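User: Is it possible to get a 3D structure for a protein together with its bound compound? The compound here is S-adenosylmethionine. I've pasted both below.
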Amino acid sequence: MYAVIFGKNPRLSEGEFHAFTRRFNLKVSVIEGSRDWLIFDSSSGIWRYFHWLGGSLKLVRIVGEGEEAVRDLEYSRLFTVSLYGRNGWKLWRKFGSEIKRHFKEEGPSKFFKPAKTYAMPAELILKGFPDVKDFVFLFREDGSFLVGETIKVTNPFELKKLDVERPVQKPILSIPPRLARIMVNLTEIRNGSFLDPFCGIGTVVQEFVLQGLKASGSDREEDQIRAAKKNLAWLRKEFKLKNSAHLEACDARKLKRCFRQRFDAIVTEPYLGKPLKRHPSRGEAIKLINDLDRFYYPVFESFADVLRRNGKVVFVFPAYKLSGGGIYRKERKWLGKLGFEVLGRYTDYEERHKLVRDIHVLRYRG
Ligand SMILES: C[S@@+](CC[C@H](N)C(=O)[O-])C[C@H]1O[C@@H](n2cnc3c(N)ncnc32)[C@H](O)[C@@H]1O
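Assistant: Yes, that's possible. Here is the predicted structure of the complex:
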């Protein structure tokens, strides 16, 4: 039995996790879930693929249930404790001391304090994970709990490197590498040809190439293509990759002119409008979205020209946090008319942002 611990957008992480198990053909049966974690059984080697998840933090092997399960934990000289579903340092310390007492027969041990009552992957890696262990307590609402040991963490340092070490960066406008990884998983396509038609400096294309996919990227601006090429050359050298990507300048409304082939998937964050100075009113948000939709309509017509039947699109539409509170998200009937079926929708945003990413997963019926 395993648990996966979700990141800061748990609904998106859960959607990604299910898409990922289908994408890598991993047999998983869900046992129970809460907002921040999911318990499941799996006969497939999920740990071998775990690092390809963008939105999850940890893979935990469940050892047992309740206080007795502490006796079944494996000795470690240095460890920490992570609580989910409960916080409070008193409880955290109680479990740490209990584990230490139990380990006494095997040798001395120490536990260290993470920044919160659970350890984040970066803290664990810096302390020496997996030699240094992370014992996890997952609380249900009724107060009962499961006990486990973290066996894999996603690596925030690799994702950060992909962002801040590449030669050309565009901090505000480019998509976080973690989200690019999530969006690729949401396609559920394991192998195939992938296109980002608004590639900018190439964050999504970088992810295609890292995953060994047949990768193409285009952007209307020549200078963006030059930047994406520079970043790609850096990526190939840094990660010792043999494969590459086809990159060319192209208007996303005229893809047929640039690409003869048909793609299995399009993954993209398009132009999302000018940066906003303040939160829009509902009326302003409706106007902003309708103006942008007039641009997205021919873009989707053009997607239909270069997608295979049943091809997937993972597309970031804009939504807005309103000045009066709440979020404005639009329903787009025109997608259906163009042959695109909406399979899933997830919102993603940072507290300080006015724009909300309204991520759509679509299938092109052809
Ligand atoms: C939000 S940025 C994409 C950022 C990208 N995901 C990254 O990480 O660099 C949008 C990009 O769309 C491009 N763009 C705007 N209108 C376009 C069009 N009609 N066709 C193709 N690209 C366009 C812009 O040049 C810009 O690079």
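The longest helix spans residues 282-306. The chain has two domains: 2-154, 158-364.
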